[in-house]
Amino acid sequence: MKSFWLSEDLWIIRFNQSETTSAHIRAFEKIITTRFQDVIRETIPTTTTLGIYVHTTSPRTIINKLEHEWEALAQTAIFDVDHQPRIIDIPVVYGGEEGPDLAFVAEHTGLSEEQVVEKHTSVLYPVEMIGFAPGFPYLAGLPEEIFAPRKETPREKIVAGSVGIAGSQTGIYSISTPGGWQIIGRTTVELFLSNEDPPSLLQPGDLVRFVALGRDENA
Protein backbone atom coordinates (compact mmCIF):
# COMPACT_ATOMS: atom_id res chain seq x y z
CA MET A 1 0.00 0.00 0.00
CA LYS A 2 1.29 3.41 -0.98
CA SER A 3 0.01 6.95 -0.61
CA PHE A 4 0.86 10.23 -2.30
CA TRP A 5 -0.50 13.73 -2.83
CA LEU A 6 -1.69 14.26 -6.40
CA SER A 7 -2.41 17.93 -5.73
CA GLU A 8 -2.56 20.24 -2.72
CA ASP A 9 -6.04 18.97 -1.83
CA LEU A 10 -6.17 15.41 -3.27
CA TRP A 11 -4.53 12.51 -1.44
CA ILE A 12 -4.36 9.11 -3.16
CA ILE A 13 -3.99 5.76 -1.41
CA ARG A 14 -3.08 2.84 -3.68
CA PHE A 15 -3.97 -0.56 -2.24
CA ASN A 16 -2.34 -3.88 -3.03
CA GLN A 17 -4.48 -5.96 -5.37
CA SER A 18 -6.13 -8.93 -3.64
CA GLU A 19 -9.51 -10.52 -3.07
CA THR A 20 -10.09 -8.16 -0.13
CA THR A 21 -8.98 -4.93 -1.81
CA SER A 22 -12.51 -3.58 -2.21
CA ALA A 23 -13.31 -4.36 1.42
CA HIS A 24 -10.13 -2.60 2.59
CA ILE A 25 -10.94 0.48 0.54
CA ARG A 26 -14.49 0.69 1.90
CA ALA A 27 -13.31 0.12 5.47
CA PHE A 28 -10.68 2.85 5.36
CA GLU A 29 -13.08 5.22 3.60
CA LYS A 30 -15.59 4.70 6.41
CA ILE A 31 -12.99 5.19 9.14
CA ILE A 32 -11.38 8.24 7.63
CA THR A 33 -14.66 10.02 6.88
CA THR A 34 -15.99 9.26 10.36
CA ARG A 35 -12.90 10.40 12.27
CA PHE A 36 -11.98 13.34 10.07
CA GLN A 37 -15.27 14.58 8.68
CA ASP A 38 -14.23 18.13 9.51
CA VAL A 39 -11.34 18.02 7.03
CA ILE A 40 -12.66 15.63 4.36
CA ARG A 41 -14.52 17.22 1.46
CA GLU A 42 -15.09 14.13 -0.70
CA THR A 43 -13.85 10.58 -1.15
CA ILE A 44 -13.65 8.70 -4.46
CA PRO A 45 -13.13 4.91 -4.31
CA THR A 46 -11.95 3.00 -7.40
CA THR A 47 -10.90 -0.59 -7.99
CA THR A 48 -7.48 -0.22 -6.32
CA THR A 49 -7.30 3.35 -4.99
CA LEU A 50 -9.08 5.76 -2.70
CA GLY A 51 -8.98 9.44 -3.54
CA ILE A 52 -9.51 11.84 -0.62
CA TYR A 53 -10.24 15.51 -1.24
CA VAL A 54 -9.47 17.70 1.77
CA HIS A 55 -10.23 21.26 2.75
CA THR A 56 -7.16 23.41 2.20
CA THR A 57 -7.50 25.95 5.01
CA SER A 58 -4.68 24.26 6.92
CA PRO A 59 -3.20 21.64 4.55
CA ARG A 60 -0.15 20.75 6.64
CA THR A 61 -2.28 19.89 9.67
CA ILE A 62 -4.58 17.80 7.49
CA ILE A 63 -1.70 15.98 5.85
CA ASN A 64 -0.21 15.08 9.22
CA LYS A 65 -3.54 13.80 10.53
CA LEU A 66 -4.31 11.66 7.50
CA GLU A 67 -0.84 10.19 7.14
CA HIS A 68 -0.69 9.33 10.84
CA GLU A 69 -4.09 7.62 10.65
CA TRP A 70 -3.14 5.70 7.55
CA GLU A 71 0.16 4.49 8.99
CA ALA A 72 -1.55 3.25 12.13
CA LEU A 73 -4.17 1.35 10.16
CA ALA A 74 -1.66 -0.10 7.71
CA GLN A 75 0.51 -1.41 10.57
CA THR A 76 -2.32 -2.96 12.58
CA ALA A 77 -4.55 -4.01 9.64
CA ILE A 78 -7.69 -2.78 11.41
CA PHE A 79 -10.09 -3.40 8.57
CA ASP A 80 -13.72 -4.45 8.80
CA VAL A 81 -13.86 -7.04 6.03
CA ASP A 82 -16.93 -8.76 7.52
CA HIS A 83 -19.29 -6.04 6.32
CA GLN A 84 -22.55 -7.51 5.02
CA PRO A 85 -23.15 -5.96 1.61
CA ARG A 86 -26.48 -5.03 0.09
CA ILE A 87 -27.72 -7.38 -2.62
CA ILE A 88 -29.52 -5.55 -5.42
CA ASP A 89 -31.61 -7.55 -7.90
CA ILE A 90 -31.53 -6.20 -11.46
CA PRO A 91 -34.19 -7.75 -13.73
CA VAL A 92 -33.02 -8.00 -17.33
CA VAL A 93 -34.60 -8.89 -20.68
CA TYR A 94 -31.82 -10.61 -22.62
CA GLY A 95 -31.36 -10.71 -26.39
CA GLY A 96 -33.51 -9.30 -29.16
CA GLU A 97 -33.80 -5.54 -29.45
CA GLU A 98 -32.75 -5.19 -25.79
CA GLY A 99 -29.59 -7.26 -26.24
CA PRO A 100 -28.39 -6.97 -29.84
CA ASP A 101 -24.91 -8.40 -29.09
CA LEU A 102 -26.03 -11.54 -27.27
CA ALA A 103 -25.64 -13.57 -30.48
CA PHE A 104 -22.09 -12.28 -30.95
CA VAL A 105 -21.11 -13.16 -27.36
CA ALA A 106 -22.59 -16.64 -27.84
CA GLU A 107 -20.65 -17.16 -31.08
CA HIS A 108 -17.43 -15.76 -29.59
CA THR A 109 -17.61 -18.05 -26.56
CA GLY A 110 -18.91 -21.14 -28.33
CA LEU A 111 -22.00 -21.21 -26.12
CA SER A 112 -25.68 -20.93 -26.93
CA GLU A 113 -27.47 -17.69 -26.14
CA GLU A 114 -29.32 -19.48 -23.36
CA GLN A 115 -26.03 -20.67 -21.85
CA VAL A 116 -24.59 -17.12 -21.95
CA VAL A 117 -27.64 -15.85 -20.05
CA GLU A 118 -27.38 -18.74 -17.59
CA LYS A 119 -23.71 -17.91 -16.93
CA HIS A 120 -24.39 -14.18 -16.64
CA THR A 121 -27.12 -14.70 -14.04
CA SER A 122 -25.27 -17.39 -12.08
CA VAL A 123 -23.13 -15.20 -9.80
CA LEU A 124 -23.28 -12.18 -7.50
CA TYR A 125 -21.26 -9.28 -8.88
CA PRO A 126 -19.46 -6.91 -6.48
CA VAL A 127 -19.63 -3.24 -7.44
CA GLU A 128 -15.98 -2.22 -7.59
CA MET A 129 -16.47 1.42 -8.52
CA ILE A 130 -18.82 3.95 -10.09
CA GLY A 131 -17.39 5.73 -13.10
CA PHE A 132 -17.34 6.47 -16.84
CA ALA A 133 -20.82 7.98 -16.55
CA PRO A 134 -22.87 9.06 -13.50
CA GLY A 135 -24.12 5.92 -11.74
CA PHE A 136 -22.36 3.47 -14.10
CA PRO A 137 -21.24 0.42 -12.04
CA TYR A 138 -18.12 -1.56 -12.87
CA LEU A 139 -18.95 -5.11 -11.80
CA ALA A 140 -16.35 -7.79 -11.09
CA GLY A 141 -16.79 -11.55 -11.10
CA LEU A 142 -17.93 -12.19 -14.67
CA PRO A 143 -17.57 -15.92 -15.41
CA GLU A 144 -14.53 -16.45 -17.62
CA GLU A 145 -16.56 -18.54 -20.05
CA ILE A 146 -18.39 -15.42 -21.28
CA PHE A 147 -15.52 -12.93 -21.49
CA ALA A 148 -15.94 -10.97 -24.72
CA PRO A 149 -13.97 -8.13 -26.34
CA ARG A 150 -15.20 -4.58 -26.72
CA LYS A 151 -16.68 -3.63 -30.06
CA GLU A 152 -14.10 -2.45 -32.58
CA THR A 153 -16.30 0.56 -33.38
CA PRO A 154 -18.29 1.96 -30.43
CA ARG A 155 -21.95 2.78 -30.89
CA GLU A 156 -22.86 6.45 -30.98
CA LYS A 157 -25.67 5.84 -28.49
CA ILE A 158 -26.46 3.09 -26.01
CA VAL A 159 -29.72 3.58 -24.16
CA ALA A 160 -29.90 3.73 -20.37
CA GLY A 161 -30.41 0.36 -18.73
CA SER A 162 -28.36 -1.57 -21.29
CA VAL A 163 -26.37 -4.43 -19.76
CA GLY A 164 -23.00 -5.04 -21.38
CA ILE A 165 -19.83 -7.09 -21.33
CA ALA A 166 -16.32 -5.77 -22.00
CA GLY A 167 -13.41 -8.12 -21.42
CA SER A 168 -13.66 -9.54 -17.91
CA GLN A 169 -16.22 -7.02 -16.68
CA THR A 170 -19.93 -6.49 -16.95
CA GLY A 171 -21.82 -3.28 -16.30
CA ILE A 172 -25.03 -1.34 -16.77
CA TYR A 173 -25.34 1.89 -18.72
CA SER A 174 -26.89 4.30 -16.26
CA ILE A 175 -27.61 7.01 -18.83
CA SER A 176 -27.80 7.08 -22.61
CA THR A 177 -24.27 7.53 -23.91
CA PRO A 178 -21.85 6.34 -26.61
CA GLY A 179 -20.11 3.10 -25.72
CA GLY A 180 -18.26 0.05 -26.96
CA TRP A 181 -19.46 -2.74 -24.68
CA GLN A 182 -21.24 -5.81 -26.06
CA ILE A 183 -24.91 -5.27 -25.15
CA ILE A 184 -26.64 -8.48 -24.11
CA GLY A 185 -29.77 -7.18 -22.39
CA ARG A 186 -31.60 -4.27 -20.84
CA THR A 187 -33.24 -3.36 -17.54
CA THR A 188 -35.77 -0.64 -16.72
CA VAL A 189 -34.23 -0.11 -13.27
CA GLU A 190 -33.00 3.49 -13.04
CA LEU A 191 -29.42 3.60 -11.81
CA PHE A 192 -28.94 7.37 -11.73
CA LEU A 193 -31.46 9.67 -10.09
CA SER A 194 -30.13 13.21 -9.95
CA ASN A 195 -32.57 14.30 -7.25
CA GLU A 196 -31.62 11.51 -4.83
CA ASP A 197 -28.81 11.50 -2.26
CA PRO A 198 -26.72 9.67 -3.22
CA PRO A 199 -27.83 9.90 -6.86
CA SER A 200 -26.34 6.51 -7.78
CA LEU A 201 -28.55 3.51 -6.93
CA LEU A 202 -25.51 1.24 -6.65
CA GLN A 203 -22.52 1.92 -4.43
CA PRO A 204 -19.07 0.30 -4.18
CA GLY A 205 -19.37 -2.80 -2.03
CA ASP A 206 -22.91 -3.64 -3.14
CA LEU A 207 -23.60 -6.98 -4.81
CA VAL A 208 -25.63 -7.15 -8.02
CA ARG A 209 -27.73 -10.16 -8.97
CA PHE A 210 -29.05 -10.25 -12.52
CA VAL A 211 -32.46 -11.89 -12.93
CA ALA A 212 -33.54 -13.01 -16.42
CA LEU A 213 -37.04 -12.02 -17.47
CA GLY A 214 -39.17 -13.35 -20.30
CA ARG A 215 -39.94 -11.00 -23.17
CA ASP A 216 -43.54 -10.57 -21.95
CA GLU A 217 -42.38 -9.47 -18.49
CA ASN A 218 -41.44 -5.97 -17.39
CA ALA A 219 -37.73 -5.37 -16.77
| Beta-strand content bin | 25-35%
Low-confidence segments, given as residue ranges, are none
Q: How many angstroms separate the termini?
A: 42 Å
Instruction: Round the Cα radius of gyration to an integer and report it.
Output: 19 Å
Please trace the helix and strand order, writing H or E for each element: EEHEEHEHHEEEEEEEE
- What would you call the shape? elongated
Whole-number mean pLDDT: 86
Q: What is the H level of CATH, i.e. the homologous superfamily of the largest domain?
A: Cyclophilin-like
CATH topology of the largest domain: Cyclophilin
How many extended strands? 13
Give the name of the CATH architecture of the largest domain. Beta Barrel
Q: Give the total of domains.
A: 2
Helix content: 10-25%
Total number of helices: 4
- CATH top level assignment of the largest domain: Mainly Beta
